Amino acid sequence: MKPTPGLIIGILLTGLFVAAVALSFVWTPYDVSTLDVAQRLLPPSAAHWFGTDHFGRDLVSMILLGARNSLAVALVAAGLGLLIGVPLGLLGAARGGLVDELVMRTNDLIFAFPSLLLAILITAVAGPGAINAIIAIGVFNIPVFARVARGGALSLWKRDYILAARVAGKGRWLISLQHILPNIAGLLIVQATIQFSLGILAEAGLSYVGLGAQPPTPSWGRMLNEAQTMIGFAPWLAIFPGLAVVLTVLGLNLLGDGLRDRYDPRLAEGRS
Amino acid sequence: MSLLSVDHLTLTIHGRPVLNGLSFTVEPGEIVGLVGESGSGKSLTALSILGLTPPGSVATGAVKLDGQNLLNRPDRDLQAVRGKDIGIVFQEPATALNPLLTIGAQVAETARIHGHSKTAARALAAEALVRAGLSPDLTDRYPHELSGGQRQRAAIAMATVLKPRLLICDEPTTALDVTTQAQILELLKALAREQGCGLILITHDLAVVVGLADRTVILKDGAIVEQGPTVALFRNLTHPYSRQLAADSAPQPATARAEAKGDPLLEARDVVRSYPGAKGRAVDGISLAIRPGERVGLVGESGSGKSTLLRALLALEPVQAGEIALAGAPFRPSGGKDRRVLIQAVFQDPVGSFDPRWRVEDLIAEPLHLSATPVPKAERRARVAALLDKVGLPADAIDRYPHQFSGGQRQRIAIARALIVEPRIVVLDEAVSALDATVRGRILELLDKLSDELGVAWLFVTHDLTVVRAVTDRVLVMQAGRIVEEGPTARVFAAPKHPYTQALLAAAPDLETALAGREQP
């Protein structure tokens, strides 16, 4: 099957984001740890493509370094959800009954809270910082992955090959590991991509309200926050970090949707 | 002039020839059977007539309905024909109906599409449902509230609401039990005779065709090998393929073997199993015993509780009362892992019984998980290779994936998987029901051979009486959770005692009986 235009754009944008992170480790146009007040609030030019901020820091360098922070928070948060949520979902599907009810109702409980609100609550109680932001965002990923894993697993548990595995004396965990997990991997990868983009958005939101990564670590959300008082005379301060968030989230969503179209059997049936 | 005349119909899909110069006709009121093994082009012939061939198809020749060529006409023209002049009924009544609409609304929809007013469509629908043998109070039911047979009747009502001149039925009874099948076939026959519509009956079951069709067309690899008036044709088959097809459709009864002796291998004593919310017990006090080397058939229609009993016998689900014993000791879902090695199973679905991501080697070797000590890799591979040879699969199959095999080959893989731990008893759950006669014949031969070689006992759980008759020594007939009759297969088939067994046997299509029946004036 030919990849859809959306998938191609998604791959390109996500590639750009990953490349920016990789690049930030070896090179940035300017050093952002030294402040140069003489160079402050310069509009975009050949020397500073995206301009400079009120401390005279180069915006290209800030965005490259901010990408690193976004990636780290979103990746670990998605990983946290995957590592805790998937086993819970598999457990619910494998055991059914009371265990399943317990897992799913706990999930519902977490789902019932507006996610950003609870993230703010967690970081407000535990104190602001990148680690707490990761935990706060990760908690929301758990029920999402648990649901996806459970749904995929439930449909597989009815298959004859699961019966065959049980006749072969395999227990629920071994079957979940050997037969269920590999067959729902596609679904999980798609969900992980989407959760990853939501993680980036959530991190930007938390830093925007000052509960994410703390200065001097560059962060897209905080750049946006600092830009808002100067937006009248230095609009580039808001435009470029804003674009970075929009393009990254758009890219990941397109990638996720594109992968879902390719791997979700329910959609594939309607298409073929 | 014929109602339908198919003239040198040739079809290629992406350049690959699938139909090759088919010519046959259907007269008004005539039933024409289209038979052949799977892949012979039966369904594609029907789809070509309707102009519903898959993308990439190129058709040549002619398909004339009342002298008007339908082939390669624009889809708009054909939409006016489909449903109005030609109706179609598919195999699976569960998926042919929209679950969100009542059957009355669905039948009326066809009439609405062809320009009838809402009230007229409703009236036509009510009439069609009654004609299809459904009582008027079922009109407002949803498909899930109906039985399989009722759903197929609704599908027939949908196809015949506008009294089409031609009705195409693609395996209309394959998914149904024998008694329901007999009723549906009776209905189709009445529709053809009373409405005078031509009927194309596509099936892999020769007995069905012989019982019903006026003329039969036998297909092989997209070409017609023989056709003619049904009875004359089957009394005098000339092509070796047709003869093989007929032979496989009417397998010889199993040769009598010495009665099995010894202590029971697998035993059920007063087993009861019911599900919460369901009325009645799925399994209601069943006792049975299977001795070493015995071949036993467990026959029942869908809903008789045989699948539930099977899961209990395999200790996959607990029983609420009674006991399952394997080799003289209780066999329950918890514990008993050491004795699972004695009992293995082959499941119905040749597609769903394998993890699509596993290679044949790993699939067949999966039950080795039961070995007390881990089996070394080299030995594992050698054992799988030996079994592949035993079940008649090529040696290179070992590194391939299940989707690369045909249905029959997959069931061979499933049999190999069941045998790798050298069990004493193998349960076969409708293991050959999804296969067509020729492939089924080969698999039954294989099972027969393996049974003699390995001395393993088989329990055939099936609704297919032909299979039971061909391979079992003893048969148990199950109805509504109970065993209503039990005895040596030859005796039960010759002189069934219980009314239910009698009804089952009377409804089961049999090639020879059907032929004899048709010859009488």
Descriptive notes:
Chain A: Residues 67-256 form the ABC transmembrane type-1 domain. Chain A: Its main location: membrane. The complex is a heterodimer of chains A (272) and B (521). Chain A is an all-alpha fold and 272 residues long. Chain A has one domain: Orthogonal Bundle (MetI-like fold). Chain A has helices at 5-26, 59-95, 97-112, 115-126, 130-157, 160-167, 172-208, 220-227, 236-263, 265-271. The model of chain A is unreliable at 268-272 (pLDDT under 50). Chain B contains 19 helices and 20 strands. Chain B has helices at 42-50, 75-81, 93-96, 103-113, 118-131, 148-160, 178-195, 206-212, 230-235, 240-249, 306-313, 360-365, 377-390, 407-419, 437-454, 465-471, 489-494, 499-507, 511-519, and strands at 4-13, 16-26, 31-35, 57-65, 68-69, 86-89, 166-170, 198-203, 215-220, 223-229, 266-273, 283-290, 295-299, 321-326, 329-330, 343-346, 425-429, 457-462, 474-479, 482-488. In chain B, strands 6-7-8-3-9-10 form a 6-stranded mixed beta sheet, with helices on both faces. In chain B, helix 7 links the parallel strand 7 (166-170) and strand 8. In chain B, helix 4 packs parallel to helix 6 and helix 8 runs parallel beside helix 19. The longest helix of chain B has 18 residues, at 178-195. The chains are: A mainly alpha (272), B alpha/beta (521).
Write the layout of secondary structure elements.
The complex is a heterodimer of chains A (272) and B (521).
Chain A: H1 5-26, H2 59-95, H3 97-112, H4 115-126, H5 130-157, H6 160-167, H7 172-208, H8 220-227, H9 236-263, H10 265-271
Helix pairs in contact in A: 1-2, 1-9, 2-3, 2-5, 2-7, 3-5, 4-5, 5-7, 7-8, 7-9, 8-9
Chain B: E1 4-13, E2 16-26, E3 31-35, H1 42-50, E4 57-65, E5 68-69, H2 75-81, E6 86-89, H3 93-96, H4 103-113, H5 118-131, H6 148-160, E7 166-170, H7 178-195, E8 198-203, H8 206-212, E9 215-220, E10 223-229, H9 230-235, H10 240-249, E11 266-273, E12 283-290, E13 295-299, H11 306-313, E14 321-326, E15 329-330, E16 343-346, H12 360-365, H13 377-390, H14 407-419, E17 425-429, H15 437-454, E18 457-462, H16 465-471, E19 474-479, E20 482-488, H17 489-494, H18 499-507, H19 511-519
Parallel strand pairs in B: 3-8, 3-9, 6-7, 7-8, 13-18, 13-19, 16-17, 17-18
Antiparallel strand pairs in B: 1-2, 1-4, 4-5, 9-10, 11-12, 11-14, 14-15, 19-20
Helix pairs in contact in B: 4-5, 4-6, 5-6, 6-7, 7-18, 8-19, 10-15, 13-14
